[in-house]
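Hi W.,

Here's what went into the run:
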Amino acid sequence: MDEPLKIALRKQGIFTTTLQELYNWGRKNSLWPLNFGLACCAIEMIATTMARYDMARFGAEVFRPSPRQADLMIVAGTVTKKMAPQVIRLYNQMPEPKYVISMGACAISGGPFKQGYNVLKGIDRYIPVDIYIPGCPPRPEALIDALMALQKKIDEQHLTGADRPRHLNLDTPSEFPVPQFGAHDLEPSQNPEIWHPPLVHISLAGKDESGNN
Amino acid sequence: MNLETIKSEIEASVSGCRLEIIPNASPSEQHSLLVDAARAVAVARFLRDAAHLRFDFCSNVTGVDWPSKEISEKIKVKKILDGVEQEVEETRKTQSLGYLEAVYHLYSVEKKHGPFVLRLRTEDRENRAHLPSLTPVWRSAEFQEREIFDLFGIHFDGHPDLRRILMWDEFEDHPMRRDYVEPNDYEYEPTAHDEVLQKAKQHQNGVGC
Amino acid sequence: MATTTYPTAHITPKPSTDGGEDQFLEVSMGPQHPSTHGVFRMNVVLDGERVVKLKPVFGYLHRNHEKIAENESYLGSMPYTDRLDYLCSITNNWAYALAVEKLAGIQVPERAEYLRVITGELTRLQNHACLIGFLMQDMGASGTPLMYAFREREKILDLFESLTGARMMCNYMRFGGCRVDASADWLQQAQKVMEAFPRFLDEYERLLTENEILMARTQGVGVLPRELAVNAGITGPMLRASGINYDIRKVDKYGIYDRFAFKVPLGEHGDVYDRYMIRVLEMRESIRILQQAMREISPGPIQDPKTKIRGFRPKAGEAYGRIESPKGELGFYLISDGSPNPYRYRVRPPSLINLTVLEEMCLGQNVADVVITLGSIDIVLGEVDR
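Here's what came out:
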């Protein structure tokens, strides 16, 4: 049904919709985030739910302490290597459809603590991330923006076809392997099926410093 | 509160104790007292219990790593050069033995004075990195000594619960030591420079992304 | 000690060793738990509801602050200190600046000292208000007290934002002064916030202080005896709730704290209720300090002109500087070898050391009281694990 006809019908008091629209509308307006704070960003996440920014306006105020009841994981803060297996296990315990917001520089790439020996350089090495918000910490407005971006993403999902979301495609995995604590680092140090490092060509201008010893 | 007087008082009451004042050149003038590890617990008890000192509050406990350094000294050696005996100056390089240090900052809640800085040194950095634990004297040292054990690798004898505290139990290194090599996770460095750039290049050449 | 970690409460029944009928339960609380204030974990052994053993597990937010700082210039570590105790970035800056000033013998101009006191006490106000809110949240007063506290916190954060450019990570202090000067307009705004704060506090107290549920849940719970408090190195409101008069603002008189008239509130029982009450009273004293500081602040330079902040290289030596942060004694221990980065950089975290007595405070109590005892300690994991 084309859009002008729909509008014309609506003016006559006839409401038409598709199953896909109804389904996405319901999902996008009742996201239940996991009550899960890691570091500094968690305080801004709490501030977002409080009276001034009031995330409840977007249907996402019901923070659930249990991953079984949540469908949005806001990775708010630095993921350390000691914490990473727990984060992935929590993600695996969440039911589909589930989404991840990577909040703040640390959760994206390690941020200011990138050079730390115990800091994971981005949660997207182990689990797929839907929305990234930069900032250290991102302001509450940024988190609201991320939430709205996620809602838009959910709204545009097709229930059928090749580009249907993961939870409707039985061939794609919804759980990911949990890394083990090793003697020097996490093992494996990334999930190669999820994490594809961007191809960056590192070179010093004009000089060939290969870095080989 | 003079460090010299405290030193002589400790020497008078704790027999057979070697003490050394480590001067501090900075304007803070927080000089410290190096205590022989064998008598450290007795010295700590004295500092805590002596009526006029009463250092009952051990605020800060930390480790410091002093790796072995190369000391070069110039010596004159007699050598036969071109058939003639000549005195030639040579530099001889020796390795000083590195050590690990535990530093305790003491205050007194009762007398409201401080800080008093106590230092203990291990014999070396590897097999004999042992120190007596001062946890029986000050409870506040317990978790901080565990942290030193975790990050620096000093074994505190007599500690009630010496386990890793910050890193996981399977971890083998002591990351705060100066010769610690961090894991190679330099797959992606958007703004790499200096040392990080070198490490990122090494990673790219080694793994081939 | 089990090496596997479970994200949510995990229960393993253990047969009792003496062959009796009762069984001990081992519960792993955290690191993902709604009331552990971050990623903290406790291994609790229970006999029914009663706590038999409690072992804290740390390190889930160990982000290597000290190692990074040792490879960083002195100035470069300043923004990292913001992220230690991320509720009170300004007091962290202050402690680090103070340690460096001791290390290099730097004098701070008077106006900068006043600005430090004003921003530092505002930080204390918002920290204590939020802590009480979180404590009530843990107790089941879901929402209201925390929302009230965050409403006030937003006002103070607005002040910080207009002064320093950031809500949470202020990065405000420099060695020998402050980064930016406060305008007369800003001081007026701060005056307004400060004047309005007691009214909020009265309202808050009417809601909480004589609340029957609060009293029933907190009085006599999580008692910390005096002797243990001193020996275990407890500092801050927790120590004073146990009745020991030790406030570093009074003892060290760092900065210009000897110019202000204020009292140090002391507790009597050392229980959770006393810790709540101490924080309320400390907020009132902070307001008194703020009133005096706002009255006395006079124009002048805010930065010592002789100090070179960039490319700062102090002479070889060491220094330990400490302040009374809202959590307790926050100290920085620095060793310089004359190079542009510190040879050793150590943070003395009040949250970690105040946590060490958690087991003693919780033994023999109900498992539900563990949560509020933990809440009354006032921990921030960024500082516990660094």
